[in-house]
Amino acid sequence: MTTRALFLLPVIAIIVLTSGCTFFPNVTTGASDVIIIQSMSAIPSTIMAGQSTKITAVIKNQGSEHVPQSGMDADTNVITVHLYDYCQGLFSLSDNDMVCNGEKVQSNGSSKFDICKLNTLSINEMKQVEWGLKQTPNAQVKSTCDVKVSITYPYETIGLTPIYLINSKELQNQIADGTYAGKTPDVTKGDGPVKAWFEVVGTQPVSVDPGSSTENSITLELHIENTGTGNVENNKVWISDIKLAASDGSTNDQIIIKNEGATAICKSLGELNNQPKKDKRKDMIEVVLVQGEKTIICPATISDSLANFPKETTTHAEVTIQYTYEDTKETKVTVEPLVA
Q: Which CATH architecture describes the domain 35-154+326-336?
């Protein structure tokens, strides 16, 4: 074998090892359905025409944080429990029978009192909301009603992904002595029904040449996905913060999303990376989900300061999103007509 052929072997090995191969991440996933309607009942569930029944919904926080969380947009920071379908025309709201935040609320039959706004839910806390329904006017035939309750609440979810980098010369050395091994990232998807996280396109560790006259490039995929049992309000998610920086948080040692040739949303993400976390949705990046998900692919470069390391280093990609989530539950009430 010629000297030229021997020289090309490590180069060929680098190409084979660092292209066309992806290590699927190890994933740690937080709870999806954070605020739930744990139970819903009608007592009694079968009534005679003209009688009343009590609807009870038990709301529980099964996440790891108080809800609403601190740092959320104050304009959306409330948990709403809504008796949104009680077969109006077959039933009316009974006076003085609504219980919200542990206190009776005078309804006077007004539809606006079908809504209870909960102040807060601590970890594992449960709160009971009650409504009284009166069957009116008297039913002449047997009737059934699927009484429906919804909960809507704001939530913030954080996703964290390590990005492993290796000096190109160190990569050649590891290949030559047979010690090279790809890295499998440990992705953390925080609590919340909507998850967001970054992935690196291709194999890790990413080869970096600190002395190169050309940019050290990397391609990032931002994934957003509804993993809960309910729906994202208006299918909209807001990105409030991203950090593409070294593990010590240095803003100089970072991955920079390209502005030139990138899509508008990639440009916005790049700008957000250099700014403090936003606390108002009007200042955040709005993303519309399609069938409960969205993937955004952005080209990026590794800053010269981050690329200047002797062997290997780890940086992190963190994303924070906010959204309003809705879930529903129902229970059946049967009305028997009066016997003549």
A: Sandwich (2.60)
